[in-house]
């Protein structure tokens, strides 16, 4: 059984027009959300065997508190420029190319691709989580999907069960 964790980067800043989109950092709310989601992922699991992350500043900053929370040894991390603003098809191809040794992968990316990928893969799952996932994939949201059988190459539309869909606001304790 394979598990896919799809995490959209946390809320980013739009303050400086001098920065390229790739170099935009998280804003304060995004930093808080990234920490909350990291704690949630560590507490609720599963622990990723591999982390794939876009090279954009905001995705790397979303990853940072998670790496700290996971502790040592950290899972292998692959920073990949091709994941920056990647389409759902490109993200699907990347997941299909995973080694069979990988059982749980965390992919940190961007919308629209990450939300569309989650919606495409989730063939079944609990309501209202499925409805929330299809309605909006907000910044910082995490979808946990399970591929019940087969190799990574068997990953296709509708092949997964949505186990959970968690948004930072679902965990906000303030």
List the helices and strands and how they pair.
Elements: E1 2-8, H1 28-44, E2 50-54, H2 57-70, E3 77-80, H3 88-96, E4 104-109, H4 113-121, E5 122-124, H5 129-135, E6 142-147, E7 160-166, H6 168-171
Parallel strand pairs: 1-4, 2-3, 2-4, 5-7
Antiparallel strand pairs: 1-6, 6-7
3D architecture notes:
This protein is α/β, with parallel strands linked by helices and 174 residues long. The protein has one domain: Phosphoglycerate mutase-like (Rossmann fold), CATH 3.40.50.1240. Helix content is 34%, strand content 22%. It is built from six helices and seven strands. It has helices at 28-44, 57-70, 88-96, 113-121, 129-135, 168-171; strands at residues 2-8, 50-54, 77-80, 104-109, 122-124, 142-147, 160-166. A seven-stranded mixed sheet has the order 3-2-4-1-6-7-5. Helix 3 (88-96) crosses helix 4. The radius of gyration is 15 Å and the shape is globular. 37% of the residues are buried. The mean pLDDT is 94.
Globally, the shape reads: globular
Count of helical segments? 6
Largest sheet: 7 strands, mixed
Low-confidence parts = none
Q: Summarize this, please?
A:
By secondary structure, the chain is of the alpha/beta class. Helix content is 34%, strand content 22%.
């Amino acid at each position: 059984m394979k598990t896919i964790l799809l995490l959209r980067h946390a809320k980013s800043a739009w303050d400086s027009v001098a920065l390229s989109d790739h170099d935009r950092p998280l804003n304060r709310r995004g930093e808080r959300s990234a920490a909350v989601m990291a704690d949630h992922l560590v507490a609720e699991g599963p622990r990723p065997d591999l982390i794939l992350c876009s090279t954009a500043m905001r995705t790397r900053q979303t990853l940072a508190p998670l790496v700290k929370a996971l502790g040592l040894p950290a899972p292998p991390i692959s920073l990949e420029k091709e994941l920056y603003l990647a389409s759902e098809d490109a993200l699907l191809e990347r997941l299909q190319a995973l080694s069979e040794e990988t059982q749980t992968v965390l992919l940190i990316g961007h919308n629209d691709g990450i939300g569309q990928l989650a919606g495409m893969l989730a063939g079944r799952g609990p309501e209202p989580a499925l409805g929330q996932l299809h309605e909006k994939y907000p910044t910082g949201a995490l979808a946990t999907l399970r591929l019940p059988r087969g190799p990574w190459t068997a990953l296709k539309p509708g092949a997964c069960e949505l186990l959970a869909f968690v948004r930072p606001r679902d965990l906000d304790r303030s």
